[in-house]
Here is the input.
Amino acid sequence: MPVALQRVEGSKIQIPEDSRIVFIVSLAQAVESGDHCLYLCMIEKIMADVSKEVLFAWDGYAKVAPAQEKQYIL
Here is the structure.
């Protein structure tokens, strides 16, 4: 099932509807570092909706759920 998206006012991008916090950024510079790239960005806009629950990706992004749901055995 695809993630429901919403448009961001003043931008061409879309974000997940249930986002609690979103950073709208523009790429300032990409730097190669060995076998990785470091992307340096300028934050254009920060948006938050505290009525949304904080969600995390689990199982390789196969599931999105609150952090409290995951229990670890030590």
